[in-house]
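User: Hey, my collaborator sent me this sequence without any context and asked if I could get a structure. I don't really work with proteins. Can you help?
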Amino acid sequence: MIEAVLFDWGGTLSTHGDWDLLGMWRAAAEVLAPDDPDPVAQALLDAELAWWHDRVRDGDGTGSGSTEDIVRSVAAQTHLPVQQALAAYHGAWEETVDHDPSAEVVLQGCKARGWKTGLLSNTHWPRELHERWLAEAGLLDLLDARVYTSDLGHMKPHPIAFHTLLDAVDVRPENAVFVGDRPRDDIRGAQASGLRAVLLTGRAVEQVEVVPDAELAELAGLLALLDSDLSG
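Assistant: No problem. I've predicted the 3D structure and written it out in structure-token form, which is a compact way to encode the shape of the chain:
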């Protein structure tokens, strides 16, 4: 029996994009080192990539952190304006964030069926940033619980991340379905935590060998799939 439908954010409820990550960090570097921003931008990007690899791609999700941790790791010896750099970095993302056009209808459909909803995002961005973007998209109040790994000590695929969300919606794993676009973090992680998992295919993400409980090309087909109890 389905009691809860739980979602990834990036590439699932939000659209997946091919972003200029170095350009985003350059906005922060121009505050940290206005006279020579390029080396600082590269150092910030390198620190972010190392952060992801250590915690998720080459690890099991143990450990988490925030954007501030990344910026401070580069600016630690410089006494530069970290908070201003964070504001510039987050501001650079503002125009790039968009949500799947079907996300609101899908979430409304889940609520109409009596299913609880939740969000689990691997992120170093702060909660308030995500919450504002979700509110602007009309999605915030359609999600009963929202867990951001920037607030936790673990990230997907670690079971603690999934069980934190399950506890928040008060649903047992066997009664929950997780929907995501990343085979390792979302699908393998959810299944290892006892949930069924639906993979959104065709995203430009790292591919690993997994066997999801169901696959969908687009989020818009989720309600029909769940109504068939994943058998379609």
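In plain terms: Residues 78 and 150 are 24 Å apart (CA to CA). You can pass these tokens on to your collaborator as they are.
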